[in-house]
Design a protein that fits this description.
This protein has 3 helices and 8 strands; from the N terminus they run ββαββββαββα. The protein is an alpha+beta fold. It has a single domain, classed as Alpha-Beta Barrel (Multidrug-efflux Transporter 1 Regulator Bmrr, Chain A), CATH 3.20.80. The longest helix is centred in the first third of the chain and has 15 residues, at 29-43.
């Protein structure tokens, strides 16, 4: 298996609430849409509107509802984990991440360049992706003034991965 180093991790289901947009890498929209989504999340203090927040002191950027693969349209949501989503505040959306197996990559260094480098290397691999839900996990390591880190979780078919190794 060529490409960057990763670990394999099984994760339980999660419910993420935040703001959501539809975008695409192929036509370049994601280059504008993703930073705009972050800008909106931060300037409108969206985190304060998220109800039933889990204790996880982390932010999530979730890639879901893939039209096809990484070249097609997908939904992008920035938010926080919640314990339940029976009511969704106006202007917010929910993505339910299923329990699944992930290849976990570490983006470390100057951001967003280090993060983009991880995604570009993932796109260039033969990783057996499921295209269900992928996500970035922004915890306390991302808030450091230097040596920032983000974990990138890419949903995979575990049995297919074993055949490649």
């Amino acid at each position: 298996m060529d490409g960057p180093e990763f670990t394999v991790k099984k994760m339980p289901a999660k419910i993420i609430m935040g703001i959501k947009r539809r975008t695409s890498n192929a036509d370049g929209r994601s280059v504008e849409d993703i930073p705009a989504c972050w800008q909106e999340f931060l300037t409108k203090n969206t985190a304060a509107k998220i109800t039933n927040r889990a204790r996880t002191p982390a932010m999530f950027a979730v890639y879901s509802e893939y039209e096809s693969d990484w070249t097609g349209e997908y939904s992008y949501l920035i938010g926080s984990e919640v314990t339940k989503a029976d009511t969704i505040p106006e202007g917010l959306a929910v993505t339910r991440i299923p329990a699944q197996t992930y290849a976990v990559f570490k983006a470390a260094g100057p951001m967003p360049d280090a993060l983009l480098a991880v995604w570009m290397s993932v796109w260039g691999t033969n990783l057996p992706r499921t295209y269900t839900c992928d996500f970035e996990w922004y915890d306390a390591r991302f808030t450091r003034p230097e040596n920032k880190e983000i974990d990138v979780y890419v949903a995979i078919h575990e049995e297919e991965l074993k055949k490649l190794q």
